[in-house]
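TODO from last week: model Phosphoserine aminotransferase.
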Amino acid sequence: MALAGAARAAVSLNAMSCAAGGSAKDLGAPSLAALPVHRLSSTAAHGVQLPAIRPMMAAAGHHAKSCKVQATVAAAPAASSAAVQEEGRVYNFAAGPACLPYNVLKEAQADLINWKGTGASVLEMSHRSKQFLSIIQKAEADLRELLAIPDNYKVLFLQGGATSQFSAIPLNLAGPEDAVDYVVTGSWGSKAVQEAGKYAKANLAATGKPGKFTDIPPQSEWKLTQGAKYLHICANETIQGVEFKEYPEVEGETVLVADMSSNFCSKPVDVSKFGLIYAGAQKNVGPSGVTIVIVREDLLGKAQPSTPVMLDYKIHSNNESLYNTPPCFSIYMTGLVFADLLKQGGLAAVAKKNEEKAQLLYDAIEGSDGFFKCPVAKPVRSLMNVPFTMRDPELEAEFLKEATAQGLIQLKGHRSVGGVRASIYNALPLAGIQKLVHLMKDFQAKHS
Ligand SMILES: Cc1ncc(COP(=O)(O)O)c(C=O)c1O
């Protein structure tokens, strides 16, 4: 049977019983009507056409005879980079949405039409089904294990991006007359403090702006407010490539709040030092659509009365992130990424790889005799986003063109700062950085 036929069978409500302990009807008929069969049968994750699934299934020793076959294609084996190249994949240095682990994409591809024998895709499941509950609960459990999140912290899977948290944080953690401190080390912190000013007395305790955000102002110069409800930092500024290597201590009732969007799960973090951590998934842990908030329980339930229901942490916490329809597929994908990170040995192992990757690139920049330059002060250079410029800025366009031609994509710096930026998140393989460094050396030799 052609796979498209299998897919048609797979979306039938009469498909086989559920491996996760439920039946297809638990998924809820209305949500199953959501996607037309021809869309499901012709396109898999990330626009990969269905024929691409066939060799993978054959390699896994399965035959596309029935929907049951699809159901039994579980996690794809770890792929060599040769296999990745075979599928025409490139090294994607995008800042976010960013590259995802190949294994995870393969697993999602295999699951797309028929998740664990339910006969339906995660894209079509009711968020109230026991299948989806098993997905979100496992995602949370795996994240708790990865970050060793203490029991007195809640984990929320929310929508609206990290940008919504810029408003939700002051609305939930402060009153309109309360002081809240911000140390701004780049573009995202700037946006956060601006938004906070609408809902609380936002104090710019320090800013790296005069130095063009190339360093973190020394803590001795921070003008913190006594009794501030919280101190907000951006753990890693994605655009400027400035990363906190150590987190500041706070005093009294003040809690530390961190935007970890672009270094979330890139290394171990002592969660107990924070009142709240938040991160959009689309850099290190999944596709866009879900934002993770980790918040200390005692901070909940004090939101300003005018707080929109969708921004009230207590409501989401009381409802286990299911107050309304959550971004189900994004949550499922982040769950696959968390499981993959655990399989890699957890965040200490991941951090080691990230250090090695970043070192290789920074060494290449430093060793270029000024041909390539990183403007960021060495002690705060990000392990995730590496911005650099060229001695001759006129060569940048040619460099980027050559990089793209070699399958090294999305290296253009953010439109606000220009230059080159290599985002080297967890899922960007070492081989991609080796290839970039090779190109940098070749390019320099050609133009010196
Ligand atoms: C550090 C940081 N914070 C916040 C944001 C905004 O995230 P979102 O687009 O999910 O609202 C981004 C986006 O790139 C970011 O890098």
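Done. Confidence is low (pLDDT under 50) at residues 1-78.
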